[in-house]
Design brief:
By secondary structure, the chain is mostly helical. The protein has a single domain (3-7, 20-96, 107-221), classed as Arp2/3 complex 21 kDa subunit ARPC3 (Orthogonal Bundle). The protein has helices at residues 7-10, 18-35, 54-68, 70-96, 106-113, 117-144, 150-174, 180-200, 202-216; strands at residues 3-6, 39-42, 45-48, 218-221. The strands form 2 sheets. Strands 1-4 form a two-stranded parallel ribbon. A two-stranded antiparallel sheet has the order 2-3. It is globular.
């Protein structure tokens, strides 16, 4: 049996699937950042390889907000931020450690795990702003639609969150490095790819949220929730 709960009521409950989903969410973020140093070409457009898995984090973000509420999602978003920052620090330290004499892969190791600080800052900034916009829009639209039309929340939150995420990342990472016209082209191509990716995944998001609501016996509405991102 599924019951409705407000964001405040849900804050004291424990759930079977919240930790596994949170772990997968953070894993997607770390994988996307680690694989982002490789680029591939598709239909004449160039994309970072991390784009293959990064949109999945938005799917998990939608699921977390829809089922468990904005307050829970906010904690997990900040956990992802901490994980990305910590991973970047560890990568930097391990790259600086002198390699053993017999190990000949230092240059390749540094190339894959040592993106320039500007890219790291761009990635973290885009992630934190985009995820909060995504979660906020998802939660607010659920109240506006009174829980109906899940597809509209999935697409609406994705359109808003991915727009902010992509624009922030590309601008911080590439302004001054590539021509302004090229920056606009990169933003548009990456944005279209991400949004199309998540629209195609909408049936999967539907299936996951429906299952979790039944399994956890909860359907959260963020009535009375403090939507400030600067809370734990």
């Amino acid at each position: 049996m599924t019951t409705q709960a407000t964001g405040n009521e849900i804050s004291t409950r424990e759930f079977r699937f919240l930790i596994p989903i949170s772990g997968l969410f953070v894993a997607c973020l770390l994988i996307a950042n680690t694989t982002g140093s490789k680029f591939f070409e598709l239909a004449g457009l160039v994309f970072p390889a991390g784009i293959v898995v990064f949109p999945i984090s938005y799917i998990f973000g939608d699921v977390l907000t829809e089922v468990y509420g904005y307050a829970r999602a906010r904690r997990i978003i900040w956990t992802g931020f901490i994980a990305i920052a910590f991973a970047a620090l560890v990568y930097y330290i391990t790259i600086q450690i002198p390699p053993a004499g017999f190990w000949k892969n230092q240059e390749a190791f540094a190339t894959v795990l040592g993106p320039v600080p500007r890219i790291i800052i761009a990635s973290i900034a885009g992630y934190i702003v985009g995820e909060f916009v995504n979660s906020y829009v998802m939660a607010k639209m659920k109240l506006w639609t009174e829980g109906r039309h899940l597809w509209s929340r999935i697409i609406g939150s994705t359109v808003a969150g991915q727009a902010v995420d992509t624009a922030v990342f590309v601008c911080i990472a590439f302004i001054g490095e590539i021509p302004p016209g090229a920056i606009i082209g990169v933003i548009i191509s990456i944005y279209i790819f991400k949004v199309a990716y998540e629209i195609l995944a909408t049936p999967l998001t539907y299936a996951i949220t429906s299952y979790l609501k039944r399994a956890e016996g909860i359907d959260t509405y963020d009535r009375g929730t403090n939507f400030s991102p600067f809370r734990w």
